[in-house]
Amino acid sequence: MTRIQEHNDAPAQGAVSSEQLQRLLSLGTATVYEAQGQRGSIASAIRPIHPDMKVVGTALTVNTAPGDNLMLHQAVLMAQPGDVLVVDAKGFTDAGPWGDVLTLAAQRAGIAGLVIDGSIRDSEAIIKAEFPVFARGISIRGTTKVDSGSIGGTINLAGSTVERGDIIVGDRDGLVVVKACEVLDALQSAEEREAKEEEFRHRIMDGASTAELLGLLPTLQRYGW
Predict the structure, then answer these.
(1) pTM of the model
(2) Phi, psi of 197 (to 5 degrees)
(3) Which of 49, 109, 165, 169 lies in the 20 to 30 Å Cα band around 42?
(4) What is the enclosing helix (H) or strand (E) of 167?
(5) 69 and 98 Cβ atoms separated by less than 8 Å
(6) In 3-state terms, what secondary structure has residue 147?
């Protein structure tokens, strides 16, 4: 595998404000995904380990071998406050490379959360710690600490491309990636979509149908309905 990228190679933080990140999170992943033209979703198999967990932050990407967590320890050392560790563990679910000890270390480092295409363990302790974790599975089996891996490069996370500096948004509906340079556009589009849906809610309460609001009546009529 490739060598670890130096920390200084990471993009500068602060290009996206905390207020913008919180606005994305409040709009919700489904709205942000739709507002981006149905782009940026991460495989639905990677889920929050508790439905109330939400996460937003800047991706620090990690590429590691299945069943090894050496790079996770290094990533905690490298991460900046507000980073979300986004880990390509190759979808391997029969070992848990992340647990309660790494969670404590991540919280002390100011890390915003973990997204891993793999498993974690110590789930009850992590939930009690209120540390946001999105994972493919849970496994009590331990891991090795030998793989050189890489940190900060482009990864393929369950079919989705994630780069260092991308914005990760997660809630119980799923995960979505927003390019840092597209945050303002994503916010504007998402807020416009939310306003439109709020208008729909009001009109439904006044008696309108979803078929009417979405312009589906002509199509339904063509099918004889």
Answers:
(1) 0.90
(2) -70, -35
(3) 109
(4) strand 167-171
(5) yes
(6) coil
Residues 6+ apart with CB under 8 A from 130: none
Q: Which residue do the tokens 């320890």 mark?
A: 73
Q: Are the CB atoms for 60 and 151 separated by under 8 Å?
A: yes
Beta partners for residue 84, in sequence order: 59, 113
Are 3 and 71 contacting, i.e. CB atoms less than 8 angstroms apart? Answer: no
Q: From CA 35, how far away is CA 29, in angstroms rounded?
A: 10
Q: What is the pLDDT of residues 88-142, one digit of tens each?
A: 999 999 999 999 999 999 999 999 999 999 999 999 999 999 999 999 999 999 9
Neighbouring C-beta atoms of residue 189, cutoff 10 Å: 18
What's the token pair of residue 8?
């200084």
Cα atoms in the 13 Å half-sphere on the side-chain side of 90: 11
